[in-house]
């Protein structure tokens, strides 16, 4: 099963480097043309199903890409809830002990009035548990998941042992393809590829 994880296009808060989690902000219209290369790549693929976060920035990105496939909207694909840090920048937070602790170990320290790592990971894990269960009942599939940077970081760190959470950088309107194979009853990632990608890459 090939799963294409795509990060939504850019918003004003992204451009200003503000933390953007559950706040529902749309895309910058003048920046939509940056998605054209991605659109060309994805238009050549036939997706069996498309899943998207329910937040506006993901749905607007998907609408611009015009992928001809059945779409399921799922709130479990949202970015982490940044709570008190929503809309804040690194410079505004860097002197807070809670913030420095979180940067040091995001899986242990929680965001004030936000979402814990355990809650964030469990909702994404449950989505993928259902996806894998469904894949076992059907033939190998090609899936598109329109989501957020933190979600993609977590999934890659979970399924690709050589990548840590902070190790991966996904730009807006970019993504990765993970290929999963069933081995001894478990789904294992057998390859990772950047999207859009060069034709010569394998």
UniProtKB/TrEMBL annotation:
Pfam families: His_Phos_1. Gene3D superfamilies: Phosphoglycerate mutase-like. The keyword Cytoplasm does not apply. CDD domains: HP_PGM_like. It comes from the Bacteria. The active site is at residues 8, 79. Substrate binds at residues 7-14, 57. Keywords: Hydrolase. One of its GO terms (cellular component) is cytosol. GO terms for biological process: negative regulation of glycolytic process; regulation of pentose-phosphate shunt. One of its GO terms (molecular function) is fructose-2,6-bisphosphate 2-phosphatase activity. InterPro entries: His_Pase_superF_clade-1, His_PPase_superfam, Phosphoglycerate_Mutase. The keyword Hydrolase applies. Coiled coil: none annotated. PANTHER family: FRUCTOSE-2,6-BISPHOSPHATASE TIGAR. This is Histidine phosphatase family protein. The lineage of its organism: Bacteria, Bacillati, Bacillota, Bacilli, Bacillales.
């Amino acid at each position: 099963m090939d799963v294409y994880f795509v990060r939504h296009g850019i918003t004003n808060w992204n451009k200003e480097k503000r933390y953007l989690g559950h706040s529902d902000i749309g895309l910058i219209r003048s920046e939509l043309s940056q998605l054209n290369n991605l659109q060309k790549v994805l238009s050549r693929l036939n997706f069996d199903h498309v899943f998207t976060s329910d937040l506006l920035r993901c749905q607007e990105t998907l609408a611009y890409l015009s992928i001809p496939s059945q779409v399921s909207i799922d709130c479990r694909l949202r970015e982490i809830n940044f709570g008190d840090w929503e809309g804040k920048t690194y410079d505004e937070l860097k002197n807070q002990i809670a913030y420095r602790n979180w940067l040091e170990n995001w899986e242990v320290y929680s965001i004030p009035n936000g979402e814990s790592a355990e809650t964030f990971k469990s909702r994404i894990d449950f989505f993928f548990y259902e996806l894998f269960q469904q894949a076992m009942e059907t033939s190998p599939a090609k899936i598109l998941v329109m989501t957020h940077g933190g979600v993609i970081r977590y999934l890659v760190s979970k399924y690709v042992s050589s990548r840590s959470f902070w190790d991966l950088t996904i730009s807006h309107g970019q993504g990765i393809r993970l290929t999963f194979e069933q081995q001894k009853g478990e789904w294992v990632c057998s390859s990772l590829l950047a999207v859009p990608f060069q034709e010569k890459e394998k």
